[in-house]
Amino acid sequence: MLFITDYSNEAWQTKWEDDLVPGFEDGNDDGTTVNVRYSGFSGNQESELGRLVQAGDPPELNTSTFEQVGDFFAEGYFADVGDVVAEAEELNGELIGTPYSIQREDETDTFYELPHGAYVGTFLYRTDVYDQLGLDVPSNFQEVMENARTIDESSMDVRGYGLAGQRTGKAHDEFQTYLSLMGANELGFVNPDADNLAEAEVELLYEENEDTIVRLLEFMGDLAEYSYDPTSLGWGSSIQNWVSGSFAQQYHLNAWPVSAAAGAGVDAIVDNTGVAILPLWEEGGISREETQLTNPTMDGHHLFDSADMTEGGRDFLSYCYGQDETRGRNMYATEPGRFLPAFSDIVDSEEFASYEQFQEYPQTLEQMRTVANDIYPNSYGLNDTPGVLANSPIGVYYFRSFHQAEMVNDVVTGSSTPQEAYEYGKGEAERLMEEAREAFDR
Fold it and tell me: Which domains does the chain have, with CATH numbers?
C-alpha cells in the first residue's frame, strides 16, 4: 500500500521506516506492506496526489488538512474511518476539535479523516529582540505593525516581520485567520440554526465584507515593508528562516518553529522565542467573543476508497493510533511543537512530557501546554456561529483554493492595489461557489 505524507522531516522518516512500518508489517497476517512517500507541504503536495488520482492509481492513505483534498472528497474518493477514530478516542480521549464528518440517522458519525493533530494559530516573537528594544507583546494588529517598524529600523540584523506572500499555503491560512480576527468570514450559513448543516444553504459573504477584506489587504501591503521577502515565505521557508533568525515576529501554528529550532539544536532561537495568543484587530474594537475563529484546522489521514488495498490502509491507521495507548501517545514525539494532539488525554500524559525534546528543552513543553490550555480555548469557538469548513462540504471544496494567497501576493508585489486584489478574489470566490454547488447538487 502507498502512503503519501508530509510528516517527513528526518525524525519522522526514521519513525516511519525503523519503527511503525516494520512493526506493522511484522504483526499483520495478510502480508500487507507499506510504501511511504514523502511530500511537500500545502501548495506542493496536492499536485502529486492529483497526478496519481488522475492516473487511476490513488494511494491508500494521504496526510494533509481536509481542505487540501476537498476536490477528491467532492468526487467521493474517501472511505469512512469512524471505526479507527472510535478506537483512538477509547485509548486517548475525545477529539479536541472537529474534523469533517457527517451525522447519520443512527446518530453515529461518518469520519472522512483520522485526525492526527490540530493547528492552533499563534503569534511568535523573539523575546531577546523585544527586550533589547523595549517592546511589549502586541494585543492588536496596529501594535504588530509598530513593533515591526521599530525592529526593522533598529540596528539589529533582523527584519521586523515574516509575512507569508507566496501564492499557496501559508498566505492562504494567514489571510483567513486574520480576517476571522477582524470578525468576518468569506462564507456563512443562511440559517446557522439548521438541524443538518451538511445540507444547509451556504452564502458567499465577500460583498458585505468588502471594506474589511480591503483593509486587511492594505494592512498586509503596509506590513510587507518591514518584512523579510514575503514572496519567499511559505510554511517550510517560514520555519527555516525563523530558525536562522531572519525575522522577529510571525503568525504560525502551535510552537512548530520552536520545535524545529530545538530539533536543529539552535538553542539561541529556542531560548528566545515567545508563543502568544494572536492579537485582535484594533484597540477598542471587537472582543474575542466577536471573532470568527470557530475551529482549529485539523490535520490527519485520509483513506482512499478506490485504492487497491484500502483495508490495509485502515489496518495501518489502527496500528498507529487505535491499538496501543503508548504507541498512540508517542505519535507526536518527533515534532512535538508542530501539532496539538487530536485526542484530549495526550497533552497532560506522562508519555507526552517524557518526549526527548521536551526533556532537553522543558520550555517547549510549557509552550505546548499553554497552547492547549490557554490559547486554544481563548481563541476558538467563542460564539455560536458554526464554521462552514467543519460542517459543510461546500466549505471543504471552497477552501481548497489558494485565491486568498494570490490576493496577498498581488498586493505585496505591487501587482494589484488592495481593491483590485479584492475584485479578483471575489471573482474567484464566485466561481468556486458555483463549482461547489454543482459538485454537491445544491
Answer: 2-118+298-356 (3.40.190.10), 121-293+381-439 (3.40.190.10)
